[in-house]
Amino acid sequence: MSNCSHLNQIQEVKPRTPEGCEECLKSGDEWVHLRLCRTCGHVGCCDNSKNRHATKHFHKTHHPIIQSFQPGEDWMWCYVDQSILEDAA
């Protein structure tokens, strides 16, 4: 499945801003796709978005795993191990 050593840090979380990227909503900016932090529930924009808030959240908090917050997608990504976790749901 993956080489991720942080699977034990995955939490059942409730999205803090289910309607979009937390920071972009505050600033009135736009995003491309959304990512959910599986440690705290932060919703941030992906690296294809100009602000890259999901990655900025990782650098600030060191929460290792995000999950796609796009309908129909269930993959996760570990920033630390640079590893995708497919069929994560």
Main β-sheet, spatial strand arrangement = 2-1-3-4-5
CATH architecture: 2-Layer Sandwich
CATH superfamily: Zinc/RING finger domain, C3HC4 (zinc finger)
* Beta strand %: 15-25%
- Please tally the helical runs, counting DSSP H or I stretches of 4 or more residues: 2
Assembly state (oligomeric): single chain
Q: What is the H-and-E element order? A: HEEHEEE
Q: Into how many domains do the coordinates divide?
A: 1
Structural class: alpha+beta
The helix fraction, in percent, is: 10-25%
Question: What characteristics describe this protein?
Answer:
89 residues, 17% helix, Herpes Virus-1
Care to describe what's here?
By secondary structure, the chain is of the alpha+beta class. It has a single domain, classed as Zinc/RING finger domain, C3HC4 (zinc finger) (Herpes Virus-1). The chain has helices at residues 22-27, 53-61; strands at residues 34-37, 43-45, 65-68, 76-78, 83-85. It has a 5-stranded antiparallel sheet. It is globular and about 35 Å long.
Would you spell out the secondary-structure blueprint of this structure?
Elements: H1 22-27, E1 34-37, E2 43-45, H2 53-61, E3 65-68, E4 76-78, E5 83-85
Antiparallel strand pairs: 1-2, 1-3, 3-4, 4-5
